[in-house]
Amino acid sequence: MAGKLVVSTFVSLDGVMQGPGGPGEDDSNGFPHGGWLPPYVDEGFGRIMGEQLDRADGMLLGRRSYEILASHWPGVPDEEGGAKINSMPKYVTTRKPLDAAWRNTRVLVGEAAQTVAELKRSTDGEILVQGSSDLLRTLQQAELVDEYRLLVFPVVLGEGKRLFAEGAAPAGLKLTGVTPTDAGVVYVTYDWTGKPTYGSVV
After folding, report:
1. In Å, what is the CA distance from 17 to each residue of 2, 97, 109, 133, 155?
2. With b meaning 16 or more CB within 10 Å and e meaning fewer, what string describes 54-75?
3. What is the pLDDT at residue 202?
4. N or C: fewer beta carbons within 10 Å in the chain?
5. 29 backbone φψ class: left, alpha, beta (φ>0; ψ -120 to 50)
């Protein structure tokens, strides 16, 4: 038994993943660009997101991302995607106890590197990580990410929390898919292959 940890996230062309959904979603450190995603939402984007949710057997979130999603999704009608996300298992990592009212939520209290490693060992299927930039740093350093599914948006923000921040653990990746949308978003998928390999062109 072993779960597969899949990072699914929205990133700008310069790698920023902060505050895509709207102003105020995450304005930490004075981030002024909240809401850069909605202008590029189209049918292709919706189809990709629907397919990701259909494949997922659970969702892993950091505390802040959990609070954002838990304030929205419980009220979403079943026919608009609420049925899948509200019924699937959700895991939230936190160092402090959390009162999790969202249905089918399990709180993982402790250091994320340890609690998520144990979750992978005890779970079958795909565990989807959405958003949660701080949690991602920990998962990357602990080499717990098995796959990246990135929606890359045609916008440059110049600042904000990045998917691969300064000091990210070196990693090799294998491209497994590329799909563009009519709005200019590129959906790319990568498998983690371990440490990078090196060579020379000289």
Report:
1. 28, 26, 25, 7, 11
2. eebebbbbbbbbbebbbeebee
3. 84
4. C
5. left
Which residue matches tokens 């060992």? 121
192 forms beta bridges with 173
Give DSSP secondary structure letters for 18-76: SS-SSTTSS-GGG------SGGG--HHHHHHHHHHHHH-SEEEEEHHHHHHHHTTGGGS
Measured CA to CA, the distance from residue 117 to residue 144 in angstroms comes to: 7
Residue 1 has pLDDT above 80, yes or no: no
Place of tokens 């609690």: 115
**φ/ψ (deg, to 5) at 182:** -65, -25
Where b means 16+ CB within 10 Å and e means fewer, 95-122 reads: eeebebebeebebbeeebeebbbebbee
Structure tokens at 82: 């609420």
Q: Are 144 and 116 in contact (CB under 8 A)?
A: yes
Share of the chain above pLDDT 70, in %: 100
Cβ atoms 162, 192 nearer than 8 A: no
